[in-house]
Amino acid sequence: MYDSLDKLGRGLAFGSQLVGALAALIMVSSLLLGVFYRYALEDALVWSDEIAALAFTWTVFLFASSLVREGGHVRVTLLIDALPPLISEILERAIMLLVFGFGLLMLWTGWNFAEFTVGQVSPAVRYPVWLKNAAVPVGGLLISIHAVILLIRPTRIHKPSGVK
Questions:
Q1: Average pLDDT of span 122-128
Q2: Is the pLDDT of residue 101 over 90?
């Protein structure tokens, strides 16, 4: 069972990184185009910043969820590394339980906020604002999924050789 969930988690992380990288490329391209128009052509693109903000939001939340899977968030491991393996494992799982709760909170509050903004459109491009705000609950859902997979993973504590 765990292997199937782990495979799902790897696929979700890969998809998040792929879409996040595409969103980052759109963000940078939009900003560079806006700067080029402003300073080289002495004209302004009204939509450039809006598209960049939309892409930035999705980039942040997609990569944040992927980093939960990879254990890549900023953290202090000095204490965890100094603890005995069993206590370290318990502390790691307790932290992951908190991350799971945070992901659920993001999912719930993000959903409510995205729902609140249904019917609103952005000023320049006129895209639905919920489209940008949906990045929060999607990120929260992905964070929660990765946290659950890491919570149920087999223990990393190995018995010394010769112990049965």
A1: 93
A2: yes
Per the CB < 8 A criterion, the answer to whether 122 and 110 are in contact is no
Q: Which two tokens stand for residue 1?
A: 């069972």
CA–CA gap between residue 83 and residue 98 (Å, rounded) = 20
Per DSSP, the chain holds a count of helices (H) and strands (E) of 6, 0
Tell me what pLDDT residue 156 has: 65
Contact of 130 with 114, CB cutoff 8 Å: yes
Answer whether 56's CB lies under 8 Å from 27's CB: yes
Q: Are 24 and 51 in contact (CB under 8 A)?
A: no
Its sign, for the CA torsion 156, 161, 163, 164, is: positive
Q: What is the mean predicted confidence (pLDDT) over 71-75?
A: 74
| pLDDT at site 157 | 61
The torsion angles phi and psi of 8, rounded to 5 degrees, stand at -60, -45
Residue 94 tokens read as 């307790």
Q: How confident is the model at residue 158 (pLDDT cuts 50, 70, 90)?
A: low
C-alpha dihedral (95, 5, 74, 134), degrees to nearest 10: -100
